[in-house]
Design brief:
five-stranded antiparallel β-sheet; Frizzled cysteine-rich domain; 5 strands; 6 helices
Length: 212
């Protein structure tokens, strides 16, 4: 059957015919469309270049004479990049997408198109504070003007500060969740894919004597 126009997740995926039931046991197009729509916000975060390919291989599997599952390596790559984004917003990686259920690649399966590589960013020591002493809202965090670059990278300290402030605005909810249960203070921020989201970063509490 044709991939429905209403299934925005899989528009222009590279093929036009899908099969039902799909690989998530959705029996009707209405169910597949409804369930697939819940993944659109994750795609908007651009957590992995092959996230849409992986999801569509499950929601709208290509119509062939045999079932083609996503490769386990594709699932693992997407999970590694996207699970932290989901966790930052309070959603665990679903059990139904457990990568162990997919083939290891020795047979026919949907493989990654991109290499999934992203430039690493150096760890930076930052100080986060609450605006006006407030802790009630996700946008109440601010960044101290003093940054300590712990390892040199492509961005200068002068470029890092506005980039970090931009993240605080774009990912306010994520920052709020990262700081949940913690006090304002000094943190080490490190990770990959910093040009996309703070959700791919690791925020570690520290103090002025911890790192030099």
């Amino acid at each position: 059957m044709p991939i429905p126009q209403a299934m925005a997740l899989c528009h222009d995926i590279g093929y036009t015919e899908m099969q039902l039931p799909n690989l998530l046991d959705h029996d009707t197009t209405a169910e597949a469309i409804q369930q697939s729509a819940s993944w659109l916000p994750l795609l908007a975060r651009e957590c992995h270049p092959d996230a849409r390919l992986f999801l569509c291989s499950l929601f709208a599997p290509v119509c062939l004479d045999r079932v083609i599952y996503p490769c386990r390596s594709l699932c693992e790559a997407v999970r590694a990049s996207c699970a932290p984004v989901m966790a930052c917003y309070g959603y665990p990686w679903p059990a139904i997408l457990h990568c162990g259920r997919f083939p290891t690649g020795h047979g026919l399966c949907v493989a990654a198109v991109s290499n999934g590589s992203r430039p690493s960013r150096p760890p930076v020591k930052v100080r986060l504070s609450r605006r006006n002493g407030s802790s009630s809202g996700p946008s109440d965090c601010d960044l101290d003007s003093r940054l300590e670059v712990l390892k040199a990278g492509p961005l200068s300290p002068g470029e890092l500060a506005p980039t970090l402030r931009r993240w605080l605005q774009l990912d306010a909810t994520c920052v709020h969740n990262l700081l949940r249960g913690r006090h304002a203070g000094t943190y080490v921020l490190c990770g990959e894919n910093w040009d996309v989201s703070l959700a791919d970063a690791l925020l570690l509490p520290t103090n002025s004597n911890t790192l030099h």
